[in-house]
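Students often ask why we bother predicting the structure of a whole assembly rather than each chain alone. The short answer is interfaces. A chain on its own may look different once its partners are present, and contacts between molecules only exist in the joint model. In this exercise we take two input lines together and write out one structure for the complete complex. Read the inputs first and try to guess which parts will touch.
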Amino acid sequence: MAGGAENDRNYRFEDIEIDPRFRTCESEMKLTFGVWIAYMIISVGLCYFLGRGDPANYAYLWGVPLWMAIGAWLTTAVFFVVVVFISLFVFRNMDITK
Amino acid sequence: MELNVSGNARLVVIATFFVYTAGMLLIGWLAKKNMDRVAINKYIDEFYTGGRGMGAIVVAMMIAAGLCSAGTFLGGPGLGYKLGATWVVVAGAQNFMTFIVLGEVGKKIGIVARRIGAQSIFGLLLHRYNRNKLIGIFGVVSIVCFMGSYVVAQIVGGARLFETMTGMSYELGLVLFSGVVLAVVAMGGIKGVAIAIVFQGVVMTVAVLALTAGALVHAGPLETAIRGIGKVDPKLLNPWTWSVAYHMSMWLNFGFVIIGIPHATMGALTYKDTRAMHRAIVLGAVFVVLWTMTLPYLGVLAKAVIPDLKVADHAVPALAMIVLPPWLAGVTLAGVAGAIQSTVGAMIIVITSSLIKEAYQSFFNPNASSEHLKKVNLWVTIIVCLAIFAASVKPPHALQYLIIFSIGGLASSFFWPILLGLYWMRCNEYGAAAGMIGGLATYILGAGKYLPITFGMHAIVTALVVSLALTVGVSCVTPKTPRGIIETWFGLGKA
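Now the answer. The structure tokens for the assembled complex follow.
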């Protein structure tokens, strides 16, 4: 490409031929954001919902208050499996050297 | 109660810590031998990105141990001790940090960095934003000031702990905590840091496992201990200490925005292929979840074992001295040292690479020869290390302000320019500059309580909203990024 065209600031984005690998990158970015936000909402939501009321009346599971066992431990364990699955089976391998 | 260590135990702690330090020096020496064999024209690339050939475990640890610092090993358990259960929920935000960093930006950074030969995240940003001088100056100054002061804070915290646990002088603590890691960086660059980080990650993990087991055995049945804490102070078991809005904003601060912290994205520049990158996410998750799902809880549990600790940040070391045999308490001190040193090492790499590649080479001496760069690199690294060491001996008063704003300041200025630069073609240098400066200014005004603009949340939220609005708004009313850059970042890279 000539030097002038390279510095051109008046062009149409439609004329750029998108590298298909970047489309994959973008959808993986969106998936990552989505999963992380779901983790935040579910974990914080469960902890606060199950942790209402007087701590003296808390139910206990695995030696800790139920809200902690479910909202923090179990939720993290579930999302750990989700993250591992996505990383190994959903994220695509590609040549990154071109 | 204060953290007291008896004479005999002290000797064992010191001996264990010295073994760890000897291990670190050996790593530095090995890395130096390795770097001596590197051809001169490849030296800078090897020094800063390890020739982009790193495997999963190194990349995982670089992000995990690089980000988990004294905050995870001292401050976090301290907050668990002070605030109780609400803190353990917040700590969860950092659980999947390798997933966030590599999943959001890892692959694209890997491809583009190879296309343009970038050695730092800041180098990438400068290319994307048309080598804009304002972004260059703002970026270098904020990286050097914020990261430099954060490094000093980490080293000072480590040296004070060393003083308390061993009874030896603060200055010797400084030499052992900082001198060692500075030597590793200066000798081996990122290779030294990388091998050291894996070693440190392993020591951190052993320390965490030992401490968890020791605390559980010592505290007796878990439910009885926890109920006991509830009887002393019911608030410590209640997640409602903070409002839901404030809590969520803390999650954003510890999880969502970490791609804006320059040393977090370093791992994305070094992995060898996507298979290694995917495995790094999984390995990183294993380690970070292990640390995060134990350390803050140990802080809470410490309340049952030592109810009247004077310095909350000493929860982990104090617990170690009580529930573990001295040599394992020494390993815990080494684990804390590892957490601090791995972050310090990673940050110094970011600071020197920004100074040398982005400030010196780009703006002052574009035609510098490889040999000249190698020499400059060595001197700049030594000067940065000495400056950090000098500031740690007697931290200047003004440093406090920089430390308060450091991580949030970096994240609020870099987050959108990195993310939008990678995925939105319309984003240009004018928008990025406005977003960076506006984000940082808003963060300082909010976090410093100069203006009431946080709305009951962490200051990062308002800063992110302002930074996003400025980056998008200003980009839309100014010219597009030059076509050649967009071809490289979005197209087939023919340009």
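Check your guess against this: Chain B has one domain: 7-395.
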